[in-house]
From TrEMBL:
The keyword Transferase applies. Its cofactor is pyridoxal 5'-phosphate. One of its GO terms (molecular function) is transaminase activity. This is Aminotransferase. Its EC number is 2.6.1.-. Coiled coil: none annotated. It is an enzyme of class 2 (transferase). PANTHER family: ASPARTATE AMINOTRANSFERASE (PTHR46383:SF1). Pfam families: Aminotran_1_2 (PF00155). It comes from the Bacteria. Residues 33-382 form the Aminotransferase class I/classII large domain.
Length: 390
């Protein structure tokens, strides 16, 4: 039997990045002593007030269909937070509630792009961007971001990548995998480029609440950008709700309407009890996010101090998020060999960052997703692995 060409467009080399994570989780399920640092899902549970709200909703019978774009009260709560954060007008009509950021990215790509279009994306990029863009029929155009510049954007290279066929610019700030937070001056240059060429912008801001030193700026808050920007957010990282599959897209009302029609065909709305959990998360936003940010900052500093002291390793200090990039080129190994040998010999799973883009070749990504004693144990295992004789 034959399958549609779409099936082939949704797969590629980037999807093989998860092979080591699957192997690690299977080993852990067998009871092996494995430290899984290959995915952004922390070991601690969702905060209790969020869980309790969902349980109460289930007991109250909140198990029926909901509005396909999300319940009004959740959409208004998300809009209110973004009015506060950006100072720009946002109403519930500008908010689409989706099944996590990846669903939002995929739906946005289908709504904005089509065959013959080009989408410009700085690289390294999150693994599913390629599939989301290709699913729409558009062509992905990557812009290398130099590791020697700590993976910060080369704005001139971005400008040079724009052609008459360019339809949109996709990017993440803060970035997964690099932890880079785009400075306002870079966002201003992207905004000027989008206005000049009448481009859409899709801004993935999933890690916005986990910025450490540099302030996060949303590009949609800049002059003339709210009407051409789709901003993607999620409860997964800031509230430890990865398994709840709850996120949002903020954009022009017409675009939100198109996303709703896609949802009608694909998901027909999210569970009501999950949306009530989202409301509880926003009710407790300040305290929860402050705790999360400080926890990841401490973990970041612990790993950086320990691994950066290893002669053949060089860590980049992330400005945000729950990952740290490690330059392993000094070991003389490829990232593929390094990650798989480390897993097999020491029971630590990291992700080969080169699959996020060629510009990340020579780097691996470590997730700050276990408690500090376990992170220290992982660092010790990595150091032992690197220092062992050939």
């Amino acid at each position: 039997m034959k399958y549609a060409d779409l099936v082939n467009r949704l797969q590629g080399d980037r999807t093989s990045a998860w092979d080591i994570h699957r192997a690690a989780t299977h080993a852990a399920a067998r009871g092996e002593d494995v430290i899984v640092l290959s995915v952004g899902d922390p070991e601690f549970p969702t905060p209790a007030p969020i869980v309790e709200r969902a349980i109460s909703a289930l007991h109250e019978g909140d198990t029926h269909y909901t509005h396909v774009a999300g319940r009004d009260n959740l959409r208004e709560a998300i809009a209110a937070e973004h009015r506060t954060d950006t100072g720009r007008p946002v109403t519930k009509a500008n908010v689409f509630v989706c099944a996590g950021a990846q669903n939002g990215l995929f739906a946005s790509s289908l709504c904005l792009c089509g065959a013959g279009d080009e989408v410009v994306v700085p690289e390294p990029m999150y693994l599913t961007y390629e599939a989301a863009v290709r699913a729409s029929g558009a062509t992905l155009v990557t812009v290398p971001v130099d590791a020697a510049n700590a993976f910060h954007l080369d704005c001139e290279a971005l400008k040079a990548a724009v052609t008459a066929r360019t339809r949109a610019i996709f990017f993440a700030t803060p970035c997964n995998p690099t932890g880079v937070v785009m400075p306002r001056e870079h966002l201003e240059q992207i905004a000027a480029l989008a206005r000049e060429h009448d481009l859409w912008v899709v801004s993935d801001e999933v890690y916005a609440d986990l910025a450490f030193e540099r302030d996060h700026t949303s590009i949609a808050s800049l002059e003339g950008m709210a009407c051409r920007t789709l901003t993607i957010g999620s409860f997964s990282k800031s509230y430890a709700m990865a398994g709840w599959r709850l996120g949002w897209v903020i954009g022009p009302e017409e675009a939100i309407g198109h996303l709703g029609r896609l949802a009608l065909c694909m998901l027909y709305g999210l569970p009501g009890f999950v949306q009530q959990a989202g409301l509880a998360a926003l009710d407790n936003r300040r305290s929860v996010i402050e705790q999360m940010r400080e926890l990841y900052r401490r973990r970041r500093d612990t790993v950086f101090q320990r691994l950066n002291a290893v002669d053949t390793l060089n860590c980049l200090l992330p400005e945000a998020g729950m990952f740290i990039m490690i330059d392993i080129r000094g070991t003389g190994q490829s990232t593929y060999d390094f990650t798989w040998q480390l897993f097999r010999e020491k029971g630590v799973s990291l992700l080969d960052a080169s699959l996020f883009g060629a510009t990340a070749s020579g780097f691996v990504r470590l997730g700050l997703v276990v408690d500090e004693p376990r992170l220290i144990e992982a660092c010790d295992r990595i150091a032992d692995f690197v220092r062992q004789p050939d």
